[in-house]
Amino acid sequence: MSILTPQEAADMLRLPDPTDYPQFDILLPFVDDFIKTATGYDWSTDAVIDPTAKMLASALMARWFDDPGQMGAIKDNDIGVKSLIGQLHGKALQAATPPPPTPPVIPWPPEWW
Asked: Quick check: 53 pLDDT over 90?
């Protein structure tokens, strides 16, 4: 599964039919791999795709579809994309960190009742 379906990508780019754009077959997996490398987590494997991951995939898809020469690059002044990458990286770190252990419950000795 991909972060964006071909239809979602086509809708975001205001294209009528994704089957008319064979470059989606290259671009969608590339966007997924870029996000996985940038954040350290494979967002496309989640049962429900994180909305921030969808937003980042949409932003990258729009940039790289319009200018394929920029594929794999983030411009220095692209604060929005960098911010989304940072947010997803933080979520990936939170998901990878196990919760702290629950302290054991020590019952009161009966003589203290």
From this structure: yes
Rounded distance between C-alpha atoms, residue 113 and residue 31, angstroms: 63
Does some domain include residue 1?
no
CA distance 63 to 88: 19
Cα dist from 30 to 33, 107, 110, whole Å = 5, 56, 64
Q: Does residue 78 lie within any of the structural domains?
A: yes
Q: Which of 28, 25, 7 is nearest to 16 (CA)?
A: 7
65, 90 Cβ separation under 8 angstroms: no
Looking up tokens 């064979």, which residue turns up? 22
pLDDT tops 70 at residue 113: no
